[in-house]
Write a structure and sequence with these properties.
By secondary structure, the protein is an alpha/beta fold. Among the domains are: 5-99 and 222-285, Rossmann fold (3-Layer(aba) Sandwich); 122-190; 325-410 and 555-590 and 612-683, Rossmann fold, CATH 3.40.50.300; 412-545, no CATH class. The protein has 34 helices and 25 strands.
Length: 965
């Protein structure tokens, strides 16, 4: 394939020769071996953009990333490369760039829309699911029951991850087989699956394909896999099976950074890639652009000497030293001294001039180091013998007024605000009458010290109300009792709205997030047993919930205290790797101890999976030290809290040697000081359209939801809109050329209707309840839709298309419902954007607030034209409950106004401008009144977005509505 001079010149200016060679390679199977800091994301992004520049269709590209955060980063780099090539960034919307798990979920939904209403459970939610269905699954309560639940869920996930058939378990352990079989049947019947099973199911579906043509993978040609060293067996099976239909498989990784063997990752995938695939082309990116010469050489010498055999050979070099550098290993008498030195060193370095450089060595920018430039990394935070290992480091920094944000397994329940809420909830564990004296002691001793404005009368009122809700039902019928409402009422009574502590607000937001998952899995806490199980879950599992999802999306200038696993893929100017002591780093060797029979786990055991080996620990240590850009400090201490015997230095730290390595504790200055300034991080850019549009209503609501993580309570008919939409999609999937009959509609409703969070009646014929009435309503909605809009089924195809639009440096994601009109040859003649809503609207259009829906349809129309290549002539909101299809203006000016409104919101988010915008119409329907003072605060900027063109005329966005007292 001939490369145009313009594209070639652009790539030569932005890529190294090794990166360039990987980008233009057209081999079928490519391994890109990329060391830490070698620009693998840039290479991957340019490879994707290069394919587009050479005429490949963007929808033919799939790229798997390790996390969704990494996916957003890759998308932005692809957008940057496309822009430099003179191509539209909106091409990204037609590609798939995301996690392998999310692709499998999408693929299954494309095969059968029924899967789109399945909830995907992570490990914690799977445990919750089992807890809520103990008897159904044949599990018993009593001593050790939580460990038995964990053992079962681990066995289920390991079974799927290792690609072991469920039937094979029966021969060796009939009791475990029966439990796993019941779990499998129950999950499917209830509309749930976990990540491991979703991939397993997707593999089975792929293997059913006999011809790529006319299959659901027909459009795909190029498959990219990032972080390939951390792929597990079922993921590799999926990649291998899918790649058989691809023109190219391009994998990127570094065996030296394989750090997830303990949860099944198989480093052999990358080590043996060249042997398992035909005609493999290998490219090596071995220049570390991140770290100094001393750090690169130290890391390289360490990994080569520690893992001399089971690794791919590499000669890694550095690119530049930068204006400052420091490399030390330190040993302290006790952890208190170690923690104090770390805090003092951070304090001494704040404001130190830090120069960023361009790839050609010229100065890019200079600024003073600020708190978020520092990371304190720990092998493991939990301690059996005393307080968590990060506590003394955090306290030492706070004693010096250094802001700290923590992530890792320490959890929010190690900190006072969440501890307090949990203590209050525990007051209702016992079904006996609420003890007012105990509740008052809790208020005085635990609540008032951290919530000084708390309202005692409200506090007691909430406790009594929720005691009645849980233990004193007013009728024999089951009713919904939602813990999120309990949390909101408690936060109202404790006057959360008066809190200003960012860590406290984020902690309680994460508590709200945990409660959301409980509600979505547990359905209700309307009995002593169900309420007690919720508390048991919080006590046992939620200890391990991390702040990562919140801390790293909020622009908090604070020192990062974290486990090493949680900073994978990140980099910091200054890194402290602390607590590097013997028997802790490296940890002790261990092997698989799960419930699955060893004979079935033989291959996993032989490769050391689900356990710990010295090689695994060495790779983790290497990953830790290669997070550092310029300054790296490694430390440990002899006397440890809770231990009688003194610790010795780790063999890892003892083996580190370099001519530039120091062992003194001097707090010397490295450069002149200047104003501290945070470095721009593109991970702070908003991406989700649903959250960005909330800024248009109230910026403070956006902050509560998207920065702090607070959630609204699950609505009474949660899932009704999803199941209605899914049935509609399945009708369009199945009946593309004719109108379905009433019987076919009824059969589709019967086979697809799913409402997980509403209880079916025990006597649905004679005493139908909410579940049965909702089902009947969906049946009526579908029949009316088919009769009124029968033309939708005649030479029309409905698609739910994903998109990413480039708006003000951010990529805003969403999905569109399109009706595509085809001719007899099935060529597309025209397109309509339709936003299906399961709501009902008034007869008078003016009585409905159309602003949010109008922006959505207008943005979708732009995406249909620029991303999917269909010029949407009309846009509609279709309200399914009363079967109305209302036209929304989608002319050029209306679309431009909608885009400018989103741009205005993105600018405000990046400025961290989150004023409360109280007005009667906004606050009346707000889900977060308990957390807000409901004040009218000004914006920091005088910029005003244009009005939105709606079905009832031009309207000002809600956040700028005139204030109503």
């Amino acid at each position: 394939m001939e490369v145009s001079m313009n594209i070639k010149e652009i790539m030569n200016l932005n890529l190294t020769k090794d990166q360039y060679d990987a980008v233009v390679d057209e081999s079928r199977h490519i391994l890109c071996l990329a060391c830490a800091g070698s620009g693998k994301s840039r290479t991957l992004a340019y490879k994707i953009a290069y394919l587009i520049s050479q005429g490949s269709a963007p929808e033919s590209i799939i790229a798997f990333t390790f996390t969704e955060k990494a996916a957003e980063s890759i998308k932005r780099r692809v957008a940057e490369a496309l822009h430099k090539f003179g191509l539209s960034e909106n091409n990204i919307g037609a590609m798939f760039i995301g996690t392998l798990d999310s692709f499998c979920q999408k693929l299954l939904g494309d095969i059968n829309a029924r899967y789109r209403q399945y909830d995907i459970l992570d490990q914690n939610r799977l445990i919750l699911y089992v807890m809520s269905r103990l008897k159904k699954l044949g599990l018993t309560t009593g001593t050790g029951y939580f460990a038995r639940i964990k053992e079962l869920t681990d066995a289920w996930q390991t079974l799927n991850n290792e690609n072991i058939s469920l039937d094979s378990v029966e021969k060796y352990d009939i009791d475990l087989y029966e439990k796993l079989k019941k779990l499998s049947i129950s999950l499917d019947a209830d509309g749930y699956m976990d990540f491991s099973f979703a991939i397993n199911l997707a593999v089975r579906e792929l293997k059913k394909i006999t011809h790529k043509e006319d299959s659901y993978v027909e459009k795909f040609k190029y498959l990219f896999v990032d972080e390939y060293q951390d792929i597990n067996p079922i993921q590799e099976e999926f990649i291998k099976t899918l790649s058989e239909y691809m023109d190219m498989l391009f994998v990127v990784g570094d065996d030296d950074q394989s750090i997830y063997g303990w949860r099944g990752a198989n480093v052999q995938n990358i080590l043996t890639f060249k042997d398992r695939y035909d005609n493999v082309s290998v490219h090596r990116l071995l220049v570390n652009f991140r770290s100094t010469k001393a750090i690169v050489e130290t890391a390289n010498n360490f990994i080569q000497s520690t893992i001399p055999v089971e690794r791919l050979p590499k000669s890694i070099t550095y690119h530049a030293d930068g204006n400052i550098q420091d490399l030390r290993k330190l040993w302290f008498d006790n952890r208190e001294d170690e923690a104090k030195w770390v805090a003092n060193r951070i304090k001494s370095l704040i404001g130190t001039t830090y120069i960023e450089y361009n790839s050609d060595g010229s100065e890019k920018s200079r600024r003073g180091l600020t708190y978020s430039d520092f990371a304190v990394l720990i092998r493991g935070i939990h301690s059996r013998n005393s307080e968590n290992r990060d506590v003394q480091f955090v306290n030492a920094m706070r004693d010096l007024d250094i802001p700290v944000k923590t992530t890792g397994e320490g959890g929010i329940f190690d900190r006072p605000y969440s501890q307090c809420i949990l203590e209050i909830m525990e007051l209702l564990r016992d079904g006996n009458q609420l003890d007012r004296n105990v509740a008052e002691k809790c208020f005085n001793d635990s609540v008032l010290p951290i919530f000084p404005s708390a309202d005692k009368n409200k506090y007691f009122h909430v406790l009594q109300e929720w005691y009645n809700n849980i233990y004193m039902p007013t009728s024999s019928a089951r009713r919904k009792v939602y813990p999120q409402n309990f949390l909101h009422q408690l936060l109202d009574a404790l006057m959360l709205r008066d809190l200003t502590d960012e860590t406290a607000l984020r902690d309680l937001g994460l508590f709200s997030d945990i409660i959301k998952y409980i509600e979505q899995t547990y359905v209700s806490i309307d009995s002593e047993w169900r309420y007690r199980e919720m508390l048991n879950f919080l006590q046992n599992i939620a200890q391990d919930y991390e702040l990562e999802s919140l801390d790293y999306i909020s622009k908090t200038d604070a020192v990062n205290v974290s486990t090493i696993h949680k900073v994978k893929g990140l980099e910091f100017p200054v890194v402290f790797v602390v607590d590097v002591v013997a028997q802790r780093f490296p940890g002790k060797n261990s092997s698989y101890k799960g419930a699955l029979p060893n004979v079935l786990m033989r291959q996993a055991i032989e490769r050391g999976a689900y356990g710990n080996r010295i090689d695994d620990e060495a790779r983790l240590f290497y990953t830790a030290i290669t997070r550092a850009e310029r300054l790296l400090y490694l430390s440990g201490s002899a006397v440890q809290p809770g231990l009688k015997r003194a610790k010795k230095p780790s063999i890892f730290m003892a083996s580190l040697n370099h001519s530039d390595m120091r062992e003194d504790i001097e707090l010397d200055s490295l450069a002149d000081k200047m104003e501290p300034q945070t470095r721009f991080d593109d991970n702070e850019l908003p991406t989700d359209f649903s959250s960005v549009k909330s800024y248009l209503t109230c910026p403070y609501m956006y902050k509560l939801q998207s920065i702090y993580g607070y959630n609204a309570a699950v609505p009474e008919l949660f899932g009704f809109g999803q199941t209605t939409h899914t049935i509609l999609e399945r009708l369009h999937q199945k009946f593309r050329d004719r109108i379905p009959s009433e019987t076919e509609v009824a059969d589709m409703v019967e086979s697809t209707f799913m409402l997980k969070h509403v209880f079916p009646s025990n006597d649905p014929i004679n005493r139908p309840g909410s579940y049965e009435r909702a089902k009947t309503l969906v049946h009526e909605i579908m029949n009316l839709y088919v009769k009124t809009y029968s033309s939708d089924f005649c030479r029309l195809r409905q698609d739910e298309a994903r998109f990413e639009l480039s708006v003000e440096d951010a990529l805003i994601t969403g999905s569109i419902d399109l009706l595509l009109k085809e001719d007899e040859k099935r060529d597309i003649q025209s397109a309509e954007v339709i936003d299906f809503k399961s709501m009902e609207i008034p007869d008078e259009i003016e009585q409905q607030d159309w602003r949010e829906m109008s922006v959505q349809v207008q943005l979708y129309s732009k995406a249909a034209r620029e991303v999917i290549g269909q010029n949407a002539e009309t846009g509609f909101v279709h309200t399914l409950k009363n079967n109305k299809r209302i036209e929304v203006p989608v002319d050029e000016i209306s679309i431009q106004n909608a885009v400018k409104s989103i741009e205005w919101a993105v600018k405000g988010i990046l400025r961290q401008d989150f004023p409360m915008r109280a007005c009667e119409s906004n606050c009346r329907h707000c889900d977060f009144k308990a957390m807000c003072k409901q004040k009218r605060e000004p914006f920091n900027s005088s910029e005003v977005p244009p009005q939105i063109n709606t079905p009832s005329g031009f309207k000002t966005i809600a956040a700028l509505e005139e204030y109503e007292e």
